[in-house]
Amino acid sequence: xxxxxxxxxxxxxxxxxxxxxxxxxxxxxxxxxxxxxxxxxxxxxxxxxxxxxxxxxxxxxxxxxxxxxxxxxxxxxxxxxxxxxxxxxxxxxxxxxxxxxxxxxxxxxxxxxxxxxxxxxxxxxxxxxxxxxxxxxxxxxxxxxxxxxxxxxxxxxxxxxxxxxxxxxxxxxxxxxxxxxxxxxxxxxxxxxxxxxxxxxxxx
Amino acid sequence: xxxxxxxxxxxxxxxxxxxxxxxxxxxxxxxxxxxxxxxxxxxxxxxxxxxxxxxxxxxxxxxxxxxxxxxxxxxxxxxxxxxxxxxxxxxxxxxxxxxxxxxxxxxxxxxxxxxxxxxxxxxxxxxxxxxxxxxxxxxxxxxxxxxxxxxxxxxxxxxxxxxxxxxxxxxxxxxxxxxxxxxxxxxxxxxxxxxxxxxxxxxxxxxxxxxxxxxxxxxxxxxxxxxxxxxxxxxxxxxxxxxxxxxxxxxxxxxxxxxxxxxxxxxxxxxxxxxxxxxxxxxxxxxxxxxxxxxxxxxxxxxxxxxxxxxxxxxxxxxxxxxxxxxxxxxxxxxxxxxxxxxxxxxxxxxxxxxxxxxxxxxxxxxxxxxxxxxxxxxxxxxxxxxxxxxxxxxxxxxxxxxxxxxxxxxxxxxxxxxxxxxxxxxxxxxxxxxxxxxxxxxxxxxxxxxxxxxxxxxxxxxxxxxxxxxxxxxxxxxxxxxxxxxxxxxxxxxxxxxxxxxxxxxxxxxxxxxxxxxxxxxxxxxxxxxxxxxxxxxxxxxxxxxxx
Lengths: 204, 549
What we know:
The complex is a heterodimer. In chain A, about 50% of the residues lie in helices and about 5% in strands. By secondary structure, chain A is mostly helical. Helices cover about 25% and strands about 15% of the residues of chain B. Chain B has 15 helices and 19 strands. In chain B, β1, α4 and β2 (about 65-70) form a beta-alpha-beta unit. Chain B is globular. At the A-B interface, α1, β1, α5, α6 and α7 of A face α5, β3, α8, α12 and α13 of B.
């Protein structure tokens, strides 16, 4: 990424975290090789491509194991505590929508979603987002988009490497903060190297 | 200091019953807790140990009642069970299956549900404003919503009592019924500073508070450390939740808290028409707790669901549902969230998310073209919640990462808009069943024109404040906040489920003592009002002929 916070490493602060939080984050980073199986092999290939595309990662060299994190949640039935009435329960919804993505890829590019070229995958994903008010394979496209992005963002922004990328120091117990207020930093926080980069302004 | 708290300590010793050795839980108090047998006929069994249930438990234990509260979730220990981490706090929410429907479905879970002793106050932001006097008579004043069967002055002494027990910190409050707070306002972080700056430029009055975090030590509760994780459960014991503000005192006065006990049905004697206790499941076993009275305090989704799941031959459509009122008039506040971008570093994750609010727009303003109003408060989303805000703008993939890398430059405000109580916004039972074999709740929600006009006006005000403070860009996400209603109090059984004292119209020894009884919601966060209503119901019970002990 752009490296706006040079030298800032969240895990460097781990000695200052309470033990329970520290254990949790360290286990998440290790993403232990415990065999979590929810997806079939086909589904996993498709999910791996989709989740890494959604989170802007290279799936062959992804710092954050988003697929494992999502699969672990689905295996444990750890939902957000609700589902839209016009969507199946989350596990079923993931399986179904991955299948539909594959079907779209075969119809348009003659290959599975996982095997499709990156630009083609992005077009297929964008097509779902663009259908916002309409159905996609019989499901409301915006509810499908909500499902995908909720799981993807929760997995991505739970990771210390990604916190470092946005300048967020992560857990703060028991130390807390001493310097609160605009432009006030703790000694271990790193100032944005280029505060005039405004992606929103640039994006417009 | 000691004399300052003498009066509150004499009626609620919770803060002094917590350990002062760095641990957050008095395990001895829990080990020594009184434990009733299922066939001990309690004076009162309470379902749910959150804002409403805990206050009722503590008050009636003090009055000498034999009382227990059953909660479906765990008896939390902040040291062992809570983390300083967003994704790791998932277990604080009610995540059993629920279905959301309607033209504007309302996400549940992390947004507005709780699980375990302390309820959703374990992870609420900590704002504890009072309702305004007008909230109790919106039908009369504005021709919308409903009039409560009680008026503001009847709740005022309970507001004052609870504000002392939490206790609440904030500036003198000029809105509604003007009042002060027991603790001075907290210093503000970057987000609060931006809000105050923008409001000052526009001539909008904004105030620091009201926040249920003592400014200073309170009993054995330490000072806030401004770590910003209020919504993940306060590991410090600084932010108030019933787990530390009412449960310890209840236990010390002989109450039982029975955690991990999922109540599945309220039992009613078909001959007498009276409640006889509750069926519940604990450790996989179905059990029955006898009681002379039952109070349900499961909040706006689970309370109606439990009543609907407690149908019998006397109540074929659900307990207390003779007039099709159970589950109806469920309210959520429209909560558009607007963020502004600054070249300076705001770092809104530092300091508690609840800092500054304005109630300048709370009352009906004819020029807005809509009845009732909204409040504006600081909200300070952590990265996962912030990613939801950013991805709602349509960004994904590498673009999302780039926008997110700008996190430290954003300030974020949230509005609470008084969306109106409508009969079709309701809980019913879905065909789907949970792990106990019980039908899950289906919550249908649709907005009306007045709601949409308020959300639009609130977004405009937040954009103006942020721009006045110097923001070069503003982005908004439409959200909801809080739940109230679903089994409201009313003057008679054709318009509500319980009377002014929270007593069921249909079953005279059944009470509802939680947010579900509120007929309107104002633009205030509901926790304080839920506690005050429960405290008032407890007073009526303790002083009435129905008293036990």
